[in-house]
Write a structure and sequence with these properties.
The complex is a heterodimer of chains A (407) and B (267). Chain A is of the alpha/beta class. In chain A, 42% of the residues lie in helices and 18% in strands. Chain A starts with 17 loop residues before the first strand and ends with a helix. Chain B has a single domain, classed as TIM Barrel. A 9-stranded parallel beta sheet of chain B has the order 5-4-3-2-1-9-8-7-6. The interface between A and B is large, with 37 and 39 residues.
């Protein structure tokens, strides 16, 4: 393969922010100059060794990178097939991969002289990461969070407040992540001069999908080397959960030109047939290309183009659209997507707690559930790498309530 | 009033007519389906009777991120009441049947238009009697999705400009806009405001230096003195949230406010 024939490379996205037919910049005119300013600042930031050094140093000393890859021996034996390895993003500072992006964008905001940071959050992990970085850098921080999510992720609301952030409840629409993004965009459009919108996933208008990917690709860059060192081989499959898709892109990116299978797992909620899910790729009647929050990608929508309410037991996957680069990689056949239901994710939660002494985030449990389905069908010499994108302390209330209901 | 070609030409005639009387054009925004379909038609038809110059007809979307709480709540209400894109096209047809002759510009977010099918939507909008299209989440760079169908049918496709737009943004809007350039008065979302920024006249001057296209100011205008001030610096202005808020008190309150704003231009 010639370098120019590669599926991915530095030419993706193009100058207008398109990954093939997905991406772009569908925003009110007021935000276009702000996005241009952001894009220029990011280009300069990427090329600046001083910033790169500072980011690397903080990633190491503050976030605890590199995070380990751990061989889950008891889990693998229990499943009786493929060997399962876990990329331990749950061990990063603040308990999830979200800190990688928050730190990168935080430094960028500081370099642009923007002292006011806003962000949206679903599960609260991105909100906590943003509040953390704002405290670290002495920036003023406001987090939009749907009131439904505030209820189901209360510990994270307290964490953000302890870190000095203002958490603003969003009461519009479904009162979840989608509505928090609407409010964050409304805030940004109003306070565009002094405010930096620290978007938490590979979503939104250009340059966010690219920028967030670049800040998250450290996951895969580390993991690929770690797997080669530990096993002498590349994994046969990499599995990650996909809400917006930042932890998945972060893991997949280093493996795009390898023979490794790349599998994204969406939230199957109560089952695809019930319509109560957040699986954009699983349900062609509801998940179709469309435009939401500034980007063209797959969107769960009615026939009339109204955005659907979604459901997942995990707030972080409970979103109607998906990062445009996922839509692109899928259209190229390089990645593929499946789903795990709420019940399957809760089962995976239980298993990882008992067999490995690790309490995983419900988001990451969707990826684990897929690994648990596959491993028994695979040979013992085969390897699955799962991105354990976050830890589950935040989910204890939800899990206790769900388990109490069903068991 | 002329019953000739609709679309871009009708919009151009609207500005000519207002200019002849030495005033700016007044374009109320009103959403279909607030508080219900029939009442919204009634309100628009009555505003037409008192001599407003044209309309921005709001189509609902589940995630109206350029709108403030007043319009977001009204369009959400419309959506729950079963209003969809097809129903909005029907409203245009019905307004024409009732003799409303002013230019009608449909205002809606991109996704429902894409779901309808851009070509079909533009063709049906034109056939129903619409003259233009206002899509707040479609910057000039992405206009390709709607530009050709609009050009082919003569439906105006307005471009936005915001006060933080530099010379390059102004050039782009001036080059692309058909019908008029929608000048966003403030950085922000729709909604009535106490005052408009002092820098607005200078911004309009900068735009005017680059284009002859009509400039219509929107966002934040709610009072007669603001209407009068806009009349002196722009070719037209849009009032939305204040009218929608008045609708909470009933049809008469909307018409009274529209009349006050309209009369302020003649004073």
């Amino acid at each position: 393969m010639k370098p120019s024939d590669r599926i991915e490379g530095t030419q993706i996205p193009d100058a207008r922010g398109y990954f093939g037919e997905f991406g772009g910049q569908f925003v009110p005119e007021t935000l276009v100059p702000a996005l241009e300013e952001l894009n220029e600042a990011y280009e300069a930031f990427r090329d600046n060794e001083e910033f790169a050094d500072r980011l690397r140093q903080l990633a190491r000393d503050y976030c605890g990178r590199p995070t380990p890859v751990y061989f889950a021996r008891r889990l693998s034996d229990h499943l009786g097939g493929a060997q399962i390895y876990l990329k331990r993003e749950d061990l990063a500072h603040t308990g999830a991969h979200k800190i990688n992006n928050a730190l990168g964008q935080g430094l960028l905001a500081e370099s642009m002289g923007k002292r006011r940071i806003i962000a949206e959050t679903g599960a609260g992990q991105h909100g906590v990461a943003t509040a953390t970085v704002a405290a670290l850098l002495g920036l003023d921080c406001h987090i939009y969070m749907g009131s439904v999510d505030m209820e189901r992720q209360r510990p994270n609301v307290f964490r953000m407040q302890l870190l000095g952030a203002e958490v603003i409840p969003v009461e519009s629409g479904s009162r979840t992540l989608k509505d928090a993004i609407n409010e964050a965009i409304r805030d940004w459009v109003t306070n565009v001069d002094d405010t930096f919108y620290l978007l938490g996933s590979v979503l939104g208008p250009h340059p966010y999908p690219r920028m967030v990917r670049d800040f998250q690709r450290v996951i895969g860059d580390e993991a690929r080397g770690q797997m080669l060192q530990m096993t002498g081989n590349l994994p046969d499959a990499c599995i990650a959960c996909v809400g917006g898709g930042s932890n998945a892109i972060g893991l997949f990116y280093a493996f795009l030109e390898d023979p490794t299978e790349l599998v994204g797992v969406e939230a199957g909620g109560r089952g695809i047939e019930t319509g109560a899910h957040a699986a954009r790729f699983a349900d062609p009647s509801l998940g179709r290309p469309g435009v939401l929050h500034g980007t063209r990608s797959y969107v769960l929508q009615s026939l009339e183009g109204q955005i659907m309410d979604t459901h997942s037991v995990s707030a972080g996957l409970d979103y109607a659209s998906v990062g445009p680069e996922h839509a692109h990689l899928r259209s190229k056949g390089r990645t593929h997507y499946t789903w795990a239901t709420d019940d399957e994710a809760l089962e995976a939660f239980d298993v990882l707690c008992r067999y490995e002494g690790i309490i995983p985030a419900l988001e990451s449990c969707h990826a684990l559930a897929e690994a648990m389905k596959r491993a028994p069908q695979m040979g013992r010499a085969e390897i699955i790498l799962v991105n354990l994108s976050g830890r589950g302390d935040k989910d204890l209330d939800t899990v206790v309530a769900e388990m109490g209901r069903d068991r | 009033m002329s019953t000739g070609n609709r679309g871009e030409e009708a919009i151009a005639r609207m500005f000519e007519g207002a200019r002849k009387h030495g005033r700016a054009a007044f374009l109320p925004y009103y959403p279909i389906g607030y508080p219900d379909y029939g009442t919204s038609i009634e309100i628009i038809a009555k505003m037409a009777d008192i001599g407003v110059d044209g309309f921005e007809i709001g189509m609902p979307f589940s995630d109206p991120l350029a709108d403030g709480p007043t319009i977001a709540a009204a369009t959400d209400h419309a959506l729950r009441g079963g209003i969809n894109t097809a129903r909005c096209l029907e409203a245009v047809r019905e307004l024409r049947e009732r003799g409303v002759d002013q230019p009608l510009l449909l205002m809606g977010y991109l996704n429902p238009i894409l779901a309808y099918g851009p070509e079909i939507f533009v063709a049906e909008a034109r056939e129903a009697g619409a003259d233009g299209l206002i899509v707040p989440d479609l910057p000039p760079e992405e206009r390709g999705l709607l530009e050709d169908p609009c050009r082919n049918s003569g439906l105006a496709l307005v471009a936005f400009l915001a006060p933080n737009g530099g010379p390059r943004r102004i050039t782009l809007a001036a080059e692309k806009a058909t019908g008029f350039i929608y000048i966003v008065s403030v950085t922000g979302i729709t909604g009535a405001r106490e005052s408009l920024p002092d820098t607005l006249p200078a911004f309009l001057d900068r735009v005017r230096a680059q284009t002859d296209k009509p400039l219509v100011v929107g966002f934040g205008i709610s009072r007669p003195e603001q209407a009068r001030a806009m009349g002196e610096i722009a070719d037209g202005f849009i009032v939305g949230s204040a009218l929608v808020r008045a609708a909470e008190e009933g049809i008469d309150a909307v018409i009274r406010l529209a009349e006050t704003l309209r009369n302020a231009l003649d004073a």
